[in-house]
Structure formats: structure tokens, C-alpha cells
Amino acid sequence: MSRGVFITLEGGDGSGKTTQAELLREWLATGGRTVVRTREPGGTEVGVEVREIVLHHRGDIAPRAEALLYAADRAHHVATVVRPALARGEVVIQDRYIDSSVAYQGAGRVLDSEAVRGISEWATEGLLPDLTVLLDLDADAARGRLDEARTRYDRLEAEASEFHDRVRAAYLTLADAEPDRFLVVDAARPVDEIAALIRARVASLL
Ligand code: TYD
């Protein structure tokens, strides 16, 4: 049986993660791999409820509570979806993971990034991706894409551009610190060029 492979996609809202995840899924499935496509928040039934709170709750949520809600979603998701799939030798392609919490709650909400990471490491018993694809896009370009696609912003998308600038900078710092785990791609490039870069890197993992 093939070894399970855990691939995460990261990047700001509007950077094209979902499109690339789907293209990668199709390519791997054509090559005969069993693929689980999933996401955080909201990759489980419990997670769908957490997602509704973190993205659409009408009042304020204290930043530490928000960080813990994402971590709770992650704990349940890793235990019930991600680890079992990897144990079966499948490829897990996931929109967002721990790096999202470090970037959004750590840098975006200005919490202690190491503490935020620590909570997620506890939640996941230390499970890290084999590969993290960072789709890097400047905040203005991302906002332009979202404006075309959305009539209503969720709680995070509605944050000011300074918030999204901090998120982007944090992602790039994370990628610099772990070049073996990260593939950084300019998300302004054409969709098929990005997909080819991702496939080349994934091929080296299989
Ligand atoms: P996403 O599912 O990418 O949103 P959409 O389906 O609307 O494109 O992500 C939802 C939001 O949650 C996104 O703005 C980033 C945020 N988020 C965090 O702040 N911390 C986290 O740990 C995760 C996983 C997501």
C-alpha cells in the first residue's frame, strides 16, 4: 500500500486554493490515488457548526476564543478524518490548516503566534503536512477577486486591509522558516501554470 500523503493549501481569501485543490485532486485520481478533499474550518459535522460560529456569528468573539474554536475544529477533524485517511494510505488535500491559525489569529488578531501554534500542535498531536502550498497574492488583488465573487463577506474577510497585509506577511515568514515543507507560488499566475508547479512538487512526494 502507498504511504499516506498530507497536502495543505494556504493563502489569503481569494487566492485560488479551492480551484487548485480540485485540479490536484483530479490529477491524482487519474493517476489512481485515492484522495480525500477536505477543509478547515468545517471538514466534519461538528466542524460545520464551529464554522458557522467563527465565520458568521453576529457579535464579537474574543480573539483567544476564536483561536480555540479553530483549534477545536482541527482536533476533531484530524482525529476523525485526516489521520484515518493517512493510515489507509490515501492522499489528503486540505484547504487550510495550522498555518492559517498562526497567520490569522497570531498575526491578524495579534496574539502570541507561538502560543497559537502550540494550541494547534496539542489539538493535532503534532501532525504536520508533508507539503504546504502557499498561494501568495497581495491583499488588494485578493480583495478584487473577492469583490467579483461575493455579495457578503464573512467575519474574517470583512477585516481591514491591514489585517490581511499582516496575514500575508506572516505566511511568507512561515514559508521562509520551513522551505522544505512549503511551496510558495505567485497566485497571480495563470491557473494552469500554478497547477503544473504544484503537480511537479507533489510528484516528488509520491
Ligand atoms: P475559507 O474556508 O478559506 O473561506 P471561504 O470558503 O469563504 O473561501 O476560510 C474561512 C476563513 O477562516 C478564512 O477567512 C480564514 C479563516 N481561518 C482562520 O482565521 N484561522 C484558521 O485556523 C482557519 C483554518 C481559517
Polypeptide structure, described:
This protein has helices at 17-30, 45-56, 63-87, 98-108, 113-124, 139-149, 161-177, 191-203; strands spanning 5-11, 35-39, 91-95, 131-136, 182-186. It is α/β, with parallel strands linked by helices and 206 residues long. A 5-stranded parallel β-sheet has the order 2-3-1-4-5, sandwiched between helices. Helix 2 runs antiparallel to helix 3, helix 3 runs parallel beside helix 5 and helix 4 packs across helix 7. The radius of gyration is 16 Å and the shape is globular. It binds thymidine-5'-diphosphate. Thymidine-5'-diphosphate binds next to helix 4.
Quick take:
The chain has 206 residues and is α/β, with parallel strands linked by helices.
Overall SS class: alpha/beta
Profile the largest sheet: 5 strands, parallel
Order of helices and strands: EHEHHEHHEHHEH
Strand order of the largest sheet: 2-3-1-4-5
CATH topology name: Rossmann fold
Helix content class: 55-70%
CATH top level class name: Alpha Beta
State the CATH architecture. Answer: 3-Layer(aba) Sandwich
Heteromolecules bound: thymidine-5'-diphosphate
Number of separate structural domains: 1
Spatial extent as radius of gyration? 16 Å
Q: Indicate the mean pLDDT.
A: 94
Overall form? globular
